[in-house]
Amino acid sequence: MVKKLSSNMEMYLKTILRLGNRGGAVRVKDIAAKMEVTMPSVSEALRTLKTKGLVLHPSYGEVKLSARGRRVAEGVNDRFEILQRFLVEVLQVDERTAAHEACEIEHVVGDDTFERLSACLDFVGTCRMDLSKFIEHLHMYLEWRMNGEHCPDCELKEETEQAAH
């Protein structure tokens, strides 16, 4: 089992995975360009990841993920993709902001919270109940809230509940 990696090391693994999935060899200069860091920084990170058994990297050669490194990288990438989907599809965060924030959150969200978020997205996408009205109302509510306004339906419900007590 790999001890918890720093967010920086997780980013290196995710970057190697994504570059490798494009086809062709992954080189230090490719990683440096993608992450906007120096080649010596990449080399240092690769040494650390290599000692943990997560990458295979002969001197001046192609960078590859070990089987364990691939599992870790895929886990980080899956977290990113699900978080980004939630931010865009449910909360209607714009794509660019969602990508940036999902990248930040992927490193700190706990396993239980992540599993619940993932299950929520699955539920919204597969439940046979008519959730479209709920999602539509959520999107309207978010728009009102972001504009400093209130939802007339939700205010009415709150007033009714307060009157009942």
Structure description:
This protein is mainly α and 165 residues long. Among the domains are: 7-73, Winged helix-like DNA-binding domain superfamily/Winged helix DNA-binding domain (Arc Repressor Mutant, subunit A, Orthogonal Bundle); 129-160, no CATH class. Helix content is 70%, strand content 2%. It has 8 helices and 2 strands; from the N terminus they run αααββααααα. A two-stranded antiparallel ribbon has the order 1-2. α1 packs across α4, α4 packs across α5 (95-105) and α4 crosses α6. It is elongated. The termini are far apart. The mean pLDDT is 89.
**CATH top level label of the domain at 7-73:** Mainly Alpha
Task: Catalogue the unreliable spans.
Answer: none
Strand order of the largest sheet: 1-2
Mean pLDDT equals: 89
Q: What would the principal axes of the Cα set say about the shape?
A: elongated
Summarize the structure.
The chain is 70% helix and 2% strand.
State the main characteristics.
single chain; 165 residues; mainly alpha; Arc Repressor Mutant, subunit A; two-stranded antiparallel ribbon; 8 helices; 2 strands; elongated
Per-chain topology:
Layout: H1 7-21, H2 28-35, H3 39-51, E1 55-56, E2 64-65, H4 67-90, H5 95-105, H6 111-126, H7 132-146, H8 152-164
Antiparallel strand pairs: 1-2
